[in-house]
Known about the structure:
The chain is α+β, with helices and mostly antiparallel strands and 448 residues long. It folds into three domains: 94-232, no CATH class; 244-372, no CATH class; 381-443. Helices cover 49% and strands 7% of the residues. The chain has helices at residues 19-29, 32-45, 57-65, 94-102, 109-120, 132-139, 143-153, 166-174, 183-190, 192-196, 200-207, 211-222, 269-276, 283-320, 322-327, 337-344, 348-355, 387-399, 409-418, 425-434, 440-443; strands at 49-51, 244-249, 252-257, 265-267, 359-362, 365-368, 376-378, 384-386. It has a four-stranded mixed β-sheet with strand order 3-2-5-6. It has a two-stranded antiparallel sheet with strand order 1-4. Strands 7-8 form a two-stranded antiparallel ribbon. Helix 6 (132-139) packs across helix 7 (143-153), helix 16 (337-344) crosses helix 17 and helix 19 packs across helix 20. The protein is extended and about 95 Å long.
Amino acid sequence: MQMGYGLWQEQQQRLVMTPELRQAITVLQFSSLELLEYLDTEMAGNPVIESVGTIDWAELARQQREQGGVRTGMAGGGGEESDYEPTIKQGITLLEHLRGQLRLLSIPPRERQIGDYLIGNLDENGYLGIPLSECAQTCGATTAEVEAALKQVQSLEPTGVGARTLAECLRLQLNEREGVPPLMYTLIDRHLEDVASGRITRVATALKITPLEVQRMVDLLKSLDPKPGRMYSVESPHYIIPDVTIEKVGGDYIVIVNEKAYPKLRINDFYRDMLTTKNEMHKETKDYITNKLNGAVWLLKSLEQRRQTIYKVTTAIVELQREFFDKGVRGMRPLTLRQVAERVGLHESTISRATTGKYAQTPRGVFELKYFFSSGVQTQSGEGASAESIKSEIRDLVAAEDPKKPLSDQKLTELLQQKGIEIARRTVAKYREEQNIPSSSQRKRYEG
């Protein structure tokens, strides 16, 4: 065998991640709000880019109010004619609410000081997370003084705060109710686990009363709040600006890209003219302007490519999920990224970027584009049924059931199979649990 050196040519296809391609991918995967922030940063660092006009915040606010159930709001400023105030009023925290009440109580300063310490150690649900002995040691107080301060804290609103256990929390709330059955307190102290599991007959046997009486106590129990402090939990507001609007015109659905969500950009003529004139210019200045001009051109191209991609993907989704828009969740069909990718001639990763964090305002509400991608099961007709449509069927079956004889998972499976949906019982149980629907034993009602 002979070995030697040689020189030859061959062609290979390789994807080179250029800065321009990386920018296009980045712009595509941004949500509307992230894109706004990105454009603000780009305009601040590139004098060649300028905004044609300001965002119509009033129009955006009106659209948001009409979405139903979607939080409205936007960070930023508006024009002089905007009637929308882009701010959100944050509610007070649980600690602020309780300390404000504590200051109004006519109690000794020492007791108020201990009470303030106790309030500072409540968790987000309003429960006291430290033992009284630890509080007494930290505050240099006796256990009796701490217990007296805790009693004052437990007298504050919302009722139930300052409790150390679930049973104590429920007792505090029952103390303000009239006509509470005496056995209610025994049920709370000894049988909460059985109640949670729906073992009504076992509780009735233990308390020597009828299941109907237990059912009535359980109904009263469900009217109480096991987490009284959660209403004051401060969460970061989640703003949504629909990227596209899907409207029904006649018998067709049209897709409109929401271009009002971010400002229109253009290249500043002043800097463009500087490169075309014959005036003398330093090489460094010319290189700087040329570099910024090229960056601006690529940004504009990336924005247009983003717009076209979102439009094509949304249009494909509307075509593939037409029955959803006509009939609602029941009409939803299984859909994968590959199906849409093949339809629009793009890669699956591109479809994923174009649908993640992007929202569509439709005649049936506002949905993330990812919502329309769902797994499913086979039907007897050979077509697929999406997980969301099956969940809708389960909700309807449970809503129409006899509460005295609730449908078991096996019975739900049989009813779905009668509708032509081939599904296993364990899948039905999974879909039921995902919707926080209790089991049949927990849904059973004992009524007179």
